[in-house]
Amino acid sequence: MKKITLILACFLFFNSARGQDLIEKICISICDCVDTIENMDSLQRKIDRCVPESMAIYFDSDEDTDNPYFSDVDTLKRTMDKVMQSLLYYCPKIKEFILADKEEQFYKMSASETANKFYTNASDALGSKDYKKAEKGFIKAIKEDPGWVLPLDDIALTYRLMGEYKKAVKYYSKSLKIYPEGTYAIQNQAVAFTYLEDYERAIANYELLINLYPKNPEGFYGKGKNLFLMDDLENSLDYLFYCHKIYTSQKSEYVKDTDNLISLVFNKMKEKNQLEAFYKIAEEHGIKLNGD
Known about the structure:
Elements: H1 4-12, H2 21-33, H3 40-59, H4 73-90, H5 92-106, H6 113-127, H7 131-144, H8 149-161, H9 165-178, H10 183-195, H11 199-212, H12 217-229, H13 233-250, H14 255-271, H15 275-284
Helix pairs in contact: 1-4, 2-3, 2-4, 4-5, 6-7, 7-8, 8-9, 8-10, 9-10, 10-11, 10-12, 11-12, 12-13, 13-14, 13-15
């Protein structure tokens, strides 16, 4: 049985499982079988039990006797691979658990006390806006512990604050190579791409953020903003209205950011005589607006 830790890597390259009815049924059956998750070991044990049990249900059913998903050993193996690749798409509770476990694993201090010392001093310098000192300290921490994402993320932030966006992108990429699901690096690299006016790559990051963390409004806001900068106003509105509803439900102070950006979209669509489309999209999101 594939280890559960491999599933997330598959998920990152899995665009959509729509249309795979049998795969979907098996994945949902596995998700129902996996009830409570105490830790990674318990999840692995349940996956090892639930995957073959769920596949057996459809393998043994009369309606799927001649199904090409189970026709021989090789196709059965390919079916299992598809199930494992699709599982997180159909089972958010497993995906959320794995992501939370990885976040705890990677966003922690180093096992090297020397690296921790360099990092702490650099963080203090960053807080004091002494960017050159922060840069030197983070570089020392990275040399001491090259596999530690925190100094990689923070030296990238340092470069972004210094206006050195290409360097920021470079170090966020180093971080993401170690921890591909890192919220901080995905989101802040997207910001650096936006400053570089590389809107398509910024959007790709925000789409990954939405895919991995659909409850995080920043992915929707960031994609909406970059679509606006690309003058794709109607699609921009879709993401901004969705983000606005999340911020509102969270009673977040960031709701004012969506208010401001939606106003900019409104003004631009008004200039283009597209207000009918604006109001239609607003209504689709359950937002009632009066006047222009």
